[in-house]
Amino acid sequence: MYRFYINKVDDDYHFMELARAFLPDDGFETIPYTGNPIKYLPSKTSFLVNEKGSDDREEIKREFYGLLSDLTGIRPPWGTLTGVRPLKPALMICGKSSVEEMEHVMKDRYLMTDEKASLIADIAAYQLAYVKGIPWEKASMYIGIPFCPTRCAYCSFASNVAPASEHAVYLENLLKETAYMGKLTEEHSTALESIYIGGGTPTTLTASQLDRLINGVSEAFGIDPASLEFTVEAGRPDTITKEKLDTLKRLGISRISINPQSMKDRTLQLIGRDHTADDIRKGYRLAKETGFDVINADIIAGLPEEDEKDFTDTLSEIIGLGADNITIHTLSVKKGSRLKENDPAYYRKNAATVSAMLDISRDMLTEAGFSPYYIYRQKHQIGALENVGWCRPGKHSIYNIRIMEDKQTIIGLGAGAVGKVYYPDEDRLERIANVSNYKIYSERFDDMLARKDEYYR
Ligand code: SF4
User: Model confidence over 95-141: pLDDT tens digits?
Assistant: First the structure.
């Protein structure tokens, strides 16, 4: 066990996160030191960081990164950046200087590799070209449907395999919450910029339930789904039917998401999906025939037993099937997932393979005419890498961009949904999380509404 005493730091959270990119969770301890004189016993496993007493946190982090690199022999490509939103500091720099200068600053200040700095520069350039301003007076909305046909091995979301009777009870409460929030936003004349129905897998609901939900949202918020960005996740192809896609299309939904993760049958079996790659192909064909404006596909790099060739085959096929948005996720193995229970160290393995997969994705997607347009990182991602959303020009998801900016109110509806209220005068957000258990959501429904009322007012 290594012990790192961090001088003149009273909050060691980011230092702990940085050390996680190098060492297993139980392999180190970070200890903030703010008093003087500093007493510690140097040894082969015990170190003092910031002996000279600098007040510059970035400088202290760079020193810590150097020490961790010397100890482990690895240099994580994101340098000292630990947050989930690496674009945020980049855009702040872009506000004062050019994208090229920002790229240099990111390398010098955060020790990012050339490759990651150039990725951030490409994303910043895309957003500056295609996404004008942030209408903070508008809101985005997320609606959670916490049901799936089976549970994936890496899943840590609010997702449940539940009988149809429970879907029905949940939907009734969700419609009540929708109507209630619609009234509240009407009182405040809050317009919506985008709506995202995710989960779980929303298309676990029947066509008529989807119809009721979308009509309920339209009535409650006085919107025409066709007049704003409205996405419905149809993530699992085994939930897709022609009737459901026709219903979504008829109601004016322009964007859907079909998420293969992999086109290899063996992998789909290993991760606990109850469908084949052929089901994914059928889902895409059906969605294309139905005529949605944008079809998104999520792919994961680092799935069990996959190598670079498997990943390349998946991506090549998804590009060929005609996806307009492709989000490349690095596998994140979180607590509560079966992968983590089966192999607690899984996320620390395969960093080189996943890094190579991300390089491949960059080359292939650029070649196919896609641009990277949003990025985020999660805890416990293999190699402390990243998730990047790619799109054909102009086909980006404004919802995906807004949730990363933290400068807009997000209305969260349903179990597991996290709403955020933005206070522009103070440039800060306050989170209002609904309970993630769908049964408790129904049981404590009235309490939850009362709490929301207080916040949103
Ligand atoms: S489809 Fe998504 S939400 Fe559903 S079980 Fe799999 S990872 Fe979880």
Answer: 788 888 999 999 999 999 999 999 999 999 999 888 877 787 899 99
Substitution site in 142, 147, 150, 152 for ligand 1 pocket (most atoms within 8 Å of beta carbon) = 152
**Ligand 1 cavity residues, CB under 6 Å:** 148, 151-152, 155, 157, 159, 199-201, 235-236
User: Regarding the domain delimited by 139-413, which CATH topology (the fold level of the hierarchy) does it fall under?
Assistant: pyruvate-formate lyase- activating enzyme (3.80.30)
State how far the alpha carbon of 274 is from the alpha carbons of 22, 279, 292, 315, 436, in Å.
Answer: 35, 10, 25, 21, 24
Report which protein residue has its CA nearest ligand 1's atom 6. Answer: 152
pLDDT digits (tens, 9 = 90+) for 301-356: 999 999 999 999 999 999 999 999 999 999 988 776 777 776 767 667 788 899 99
Note whether 226 and 254 are within 8 A (CB): yes
144 CB-contact burial (10 Å; exposed 0-12 / middle 13-18 / buried 19+): buried
- Gap between the Cα atoms of 274 and 259, Å rounded: 13
The two beta strands, 371-376 and 387-391, are antiparallel
Q: Best of 151, 203, 238, 329 to mutate for ligand 1, by most ligand atoms within 8 A of CB?
A: 151
Rounded to whole angstroms, the Cα distance separating 164 from 456 reads 32
Strand (E) or helix (H) holding 15: helix 13-20
* Residue of 147, 204, 236 to test ligand 1 pocket, by largest number of atoms within 8 Å of CB: 236
- Least confident range of 7-16, 222-231, 302-311: 7-16
Q: Kindly give the distance from the C-alpha atom of residue 333 to the centroid of ligand 1, in angstroms, as a whole number.
A: 13
